[in-house]
Amino acid sequence: MTKLSVNVNKIATLRNARGGNVPNLLKVATDLESFGAQGITIHPRPDERHIRYQDARDLKKTVQTEFNIEGNPISKFIDLVLEVKPEQVTLVPDSVDAITSNAGWDTIKHKDFLTDVIKTFKSAGIRTSIFVDPDTKMIEGAQVVGTDRIELYTESYAVDYEKNKEKAILPFVEAAKKANELGLGINAGHDLSLDNIEYFAKNIPNLLEVSIGHALISEALYLGLDNVVNMYLQRLK
Ligand SMILES: CC(=O)[C@@H](O)[C@H](O)COP(=O)(O)O
Ligand SMILES: NCC(=O)COP(=O)(O)O
């Protein structure tokens, strides 16, 4: 079975909009776990616009399932991850000003850098995963740098799923076959949703984990609004 790790960046975005502690990130993480989530993912960005570095430290004490920290391994990120020691670190090559993650690693060009960083995290007992496009050459490069897992960057799947799902999944099936052949674990994420997740999970052999945030939190709003509006109406009677 594929594990669901919920990315709580959007909860921090909402909290930061008012400067207080509503919604409470730690409570949401605990609630998500009690509802069945098998992991909690965060992606602190250098400007801390949503997840703050302190959130990573606080969540480490709270999260009972698998804690996954994603990010570009700049030196302050490396220090944070080594201090917090999550179960998994996912390396993402996002630029400082990126609105969201928008590319996988070039595992051939960044071979030496990735090899060093991965060795550092693995020596600290932290499982490593690297964010990659569904490109078999990049998967081969991922094995060379010594990562435990890859995370398939699924934005193109999510976009193309709307037009032609059979075609959209093909590069991901090829990438997953290559990863399986090379003994790499497979995670996936970015823009996965209630609409497209089932087809993805059914077609990707040995999909270990998906991390989902943006769509899942949005869907929770859509599916929860009815309940909450009615609770307000009850109190206004
Ligand atoms: C690696 C990945 O796809 C996610 O972590 C995504 O980048 C979420 O980050 P934001 O919430 O900042 O968009
Ligand atoms: N690694 C992907 C992730 O954590 C969540 O991405 P998204 O669902 O917010 O696009």
From TrEMBL:
Keyword Signal: no
Key words, A-Z: Cytoplasm, Pyridoxine biosynthesis, Transferase
Location in or out of the cell: Cytoplasm
InterPro entries linked to this entry: Aldolase_TIM (IPR013785), PyrdxlP_synth_PdxJ (IPR004569), Pyridoxine-5'_phos_synth (IPR036130)
EC class: transferase
UniProt-annotated binding residues for 1-deoxy-D-xylulose 5-phosphate: 45, 50, 100
Metabolic or biological pathway, per its Swiss-Prot or TrEMBL entry: Cofactor biosynthesis; pyridoxine 5'-phosphate biosynthesis; pyridoxine 5'-phosphate from D-erythrose 4-phosphate: step 5/5
Site entry (Transition state stabilizer), positions: 151
Catalysed reactions, semicolon-separated: 3-amino-2-oxopropyl phosphate + 1-deoxy-D-xylulose 5-phosphate = pyridoxine 5'-phosphate + phosphate + 2 H2O + H(+)
Sites where the protein binds 3-amino-2-oxopropyl phosphate: 7, 18, 191, 213-214
Enzyme Commission numbers on file: 2.6.99.2
Catalytic site: 43 (proton acceptor), 70 (proton acceptor), 190 (proton donor)
Cited Gene3D superfamilies: Aldolase class I
SUPFAM superfamilies the record matches: Pyridoxine 5'-phosphate synthase
Functional description taken from the UniProt entry: Catalyzes the complicated ring closure reaction between the two acyclic compounds 1-deoxy-D-xylulose-5-phosphate (DXP) and 3-amino-2-oxopropyl phosphate (1-amino-acetone-3-phosphate or AAP) to form pyridoxine 5'-phosphate (PNP) and inorganic phosphate.
Annotated NCBIfam families: pdxJ, PRK05265.1-3, PRK05265.1-4
Family listed: Belongs to the PNP synthase family.
HAMAP family tied to this protein: PdxJ
Assembly mode: Homooctamer; tetramer of dimers.
Protein name: Pyridoxine 5'-phosphate synthase
Organism from which the protein derives: Maribacter dokdonensis
